[in-house]
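A.,

Following up on our hallway conversation. Structure tokens first:
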């Protein structure tokens, strides 16, 4: 009988070594195309953020101007004895208080800085996407291919680290994936469909986002 503490050695199957040795090397062009999709999607995320921030800042400027302009218009047209003037003064004061509160919030939240970063990231990621797309169409056996790939990888890694500090949500990531897949006409790894619009679906990879 076999001793309880004894273990039988697992036989080394020679085919495991053969299969490991014969595993195909991943095509670097496929990696380039994946990076092109991802960076294009990230650019879309920050373009969307920039648009939202621009609208907020535009409304903030409008709120700061509309009150004084209305009061000045009434005084110019009807004089200081106009019955509308007291009401407009009250409304202008309320608007001014609201505008001041939003202005303080925009400073605390760093809207201007965030907008500047969004522009920068969108531009850089768009450039990276075009570069990866160009490299994905190149001959991987060309002498300059590896150097170009390593250079792009380094730039992309740095950009990813910076973008990662901006608090990108899961919903934004799914939105970016959908935009990238639609641009390059690639099927989603989750639902298997090629997106034809940015309208969200129930897919947990390229849908389920309400931004």
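Then the amino acids I'd put at each of the 211 positions:
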């Amino acid at each position: 009988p076999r001793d309880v503490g004894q273990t039988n050695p697992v036989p080394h199957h020679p085919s495991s070594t053969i299969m490991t040795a014969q595993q195909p090397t991943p095509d670097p062009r496929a990696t380039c195309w994946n990076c092109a999709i991802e960076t294009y999607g990230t650019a879309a995320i920050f373009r969307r953020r920039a648009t939202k921030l621009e609208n907020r800042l535009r409304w903030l400027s409008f709120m700061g101007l509309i009150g004084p302009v209305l009061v000045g218009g009434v005084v110019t047209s009807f004089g200081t004895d106009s019955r509308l003037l007291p009401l407009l003064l009250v409304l202008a004061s309320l608007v001014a208080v609201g505008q001041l509160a939003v202005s303080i919030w925009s400073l605390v939240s760093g809207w201007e800085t965030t907008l500047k970063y969004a522009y920068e990231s969108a531009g850089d990621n768009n450039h990276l996407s075009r570069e990866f797309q160009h490299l994905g169409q190149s001959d991987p056996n060309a002498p300059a291919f590896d150097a170009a790939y390593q250079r792009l990888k380094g730039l992309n890694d740095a950009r990813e680290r910076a973008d990662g500090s901006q608090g990108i949500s899961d919903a934004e990531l799914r939105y970016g994936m959908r935009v990238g897949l639609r641009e390059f006409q690639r099927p989603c790894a989750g639902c298997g469909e090629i997106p034809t619009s940015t309208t969200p679906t129930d897919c947990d990879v390229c849908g389920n986002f309400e931004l």
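The chain has six helices and no strands. Curious whether your intuition agrees with the design.

B.
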